[in-house]
From TrEMBL, chains A, B:
It comes from the Eukaryota. Its EC number is 3.1.-.-. It is an enzyme of class 3 (hydrolase). The active site is at Y165, D205 (proton donor/acceptor), H303 (proton acceptor). GO terms for molecular function: DNA binding; DNA-(apurinic or apyrimidinic site) endonuclease activity; double-stranded DNA 3'-5' DNA exonuclease activity; lyase activity; metal ion binding; phosphoric diester hydrolase activity. One of its GO terms (biological process) is base-excision repair. This is DNA-(apurinic or apyrimidinic site) endonuclease. Keywords: DNA damage, DNA repair, Hydrolase, Lyase, Magnesium, Manganese, Metal-binding. Mg(2+) binds at N58, E89, D205, N207, D302, H303. It comes from Salix koriyanagi. Belongs to the DNA repair enzymes AP/ExoA family. The record marks D277 as: Important for catalytic activity.
Length: 312, 312
DNA sequence: CGTGCAATG
DNA sequence: CATTGCACG
């Protein structure tokens, strides 16, 4: 019982007056942090000039999302009228891709999918676009890192868009070393190569909350996958120090905005979240970002979508 | 969200007027067969003298059944006011038994459980009784056959009650030979041993539709697990020829009554079923059977319960 | 907690 | 077409 990803104007959602994440972000506001509330904090839409809207969402199983009946599946993302949608953790197999493509709404005819060959129903990414890319590239070009379908790149006129699902360091941090010493540098090198010809935008689930502001309980998660010292340093040295800008943090230096809430302890209700999903951009286009935002009202996954409005 | 297995008088179910299995049993009635309709074909309840009511049900996962919200779970079996309930395919692990016992309704304090040690969440039986048995025995006493938790025996004053979940011959009939040359004879021998001291009642999912009348599509299932020549012959030679009486068939020589409908093709709606669940009794007590019946209106599993009312 | 696989029926 | 376990997050 899959649903077409269509939307009518009268389906558009009116956000409720007071979102829980506004109220509950932090009982004791600290260090000048403020809750990120998309209703109040986002700039007015651009009315003049050209812009492109990119979105990114870790869907935690696309087939499950397509069956999801609750408030807002992909329809809601489409409310955003994005030009390009990047997905992670589609958990599709190659054989599923064709049937899932049938669910795409009209206008988004260009879609590019990676699946994990190593483990079925694991990982997987997609770029879905109404703009036809100039070229598309799957993986990093390093066979060691390309068997899990974690990277897809689309080249557009004025930038490369790299969509990735970074490996989770896993229970017991058994993949931490692979992640920080192999994967992150390889991805970073790949981006620096691309950047020689055009600015690069990296999006996806980077599986790292960079700073204490990016996680609800920093003290309790110092050895949790996604918030180890090693991952946070790797995030800094491989991406930020190499000239990629965390667009959300640049725009909102003090905003507490999460993009992931574990299912395990009902974290979404109480806003016990992490910011794991990012838009990083080459310094050369950092000032062209009109809005880097989070859409925490979108359900259907343990992550919510994020968006980037870029002047072009 | 487990439910207590309680029942109130006003929860008692009124059966609908025309059950589908009456109408659809066989489009072309053949060979004098008649549909088994529990509303019309069952004898009046016993009013004088002592009787005991035994029931048996392959629940296909007891934890799933306890969550089941539809028309009738164990409450409905309890409508029957049984003295003893035998379950098969509980799919419990040893560690689950204590918590499931908490769901038992008052009055059924005696319960005896077997679980598969070989494969977790597989097979498993139980005897739940308001009469305290004189003794209880787990397995057949043959280690080769006792690792899958398929047999539990309770001794009562006037009979042994053997509750079993007979091994399915499996896809490709890969376990057919084990089933017919090892299991069935071992079970039969075990029963004959018990019978030296008391009459024996065997109940459970015997995983065999004995005759053509016991299956909706005999021609199409000649090499299907449960209706092979080998299993049917084994059923005859190991049980019937050894003096155990198929009580349902004795009472209703021409009734088409099924106890199992595969999920795969929506078989229950169209009554494409099999009779796989039985009460067999020692010849010496065959005439004490007041009613051997089927309760096809009870949902929650791919099998329905069966019952035996025995004068004691 | 929830996705998806695999084995089993 | 269901149940269960298991891996992964």
């Amino acid at each position: 019982t899959k649903r077409k990803l269509s939307i009518k104007t009268d389906d558009l959602i009116t956000l409720p007056q007071a979102e829980p994440w506004t109220v509950l972000a932090h009982k004791k506001p600290q260090k000048g942090w403020i809750p990120y509330n998309p209703r109040t904090i986002r700039p007015a839409p651009l009315t003049d000039g050209n812009s492109v809207k990119l979105m990114s969402w870790n869907v935690n199983g696309l087939r499950a999302l397509l069956k999801f009946e609750g408030f807002s599946a992909l329809e809601l993302a489409q409310r955003e009228n994005f030009d390009v949608l990047c997905l992670q953790e589609t958990k599709l197999q190659d054989k599923d891709v064709d049937s899932v493509k049938q669910c795409l709404i009209d206008g988004y005819e260009n879609s590019f999918w990676t699946c994990s060959n190593a483990k079925l129903g694991y990982s997987g990414t997609a770029i879905i676009s109404r703009i036809k890319p100039l070229s598309v590239c799957y993986g990093l070009g390093i066979p060691d890192h390309d068997s899990e379908g974690r990277v897809v790149t689309a080249e557009f006129d004025s930038f490369y868009l790299v969509n990735t699902y970074v490996p989770n360091s896993g229970d017991g941090l058994k993949r931490l070393s692979y992640r920080t010493t192999q994967w992150d540098p390889s991805l970073s090198n790949y981006m620096k190569e691309l950047e020689k010809s055009k600015p690069v935008i990296l999006t996806g689930d980077l599986n790292c909350a960079h700073q204490e502001i990016d996680i609800y309980n920093p003290a309790g998660n110092k050895r949790s996958a996604g918030f180890t010292e090693e991952e946070r340093r790797s995030f800094g040295s491989n991406f930020l120090s190499k000239g990629f800008v965390d667009t959300f943090r640049k725009q909102h230096p003090n905003a507490v905005g999460y993009t992931y809430w574990g299912y395990r302890h009902g974290g979404r209700k109480t806003n016990r979240g992490w910011r794991l999903d990012y838009f990083l951009v080459s310094e050369s286009i950092a000032d062209d970002v009109h809005d880097s935002y989070i859409a925490p009202d979108v359900n259907g996954s343990d992550h919510c979508p994020i968006g980037l409005v870029l002047k072009v």
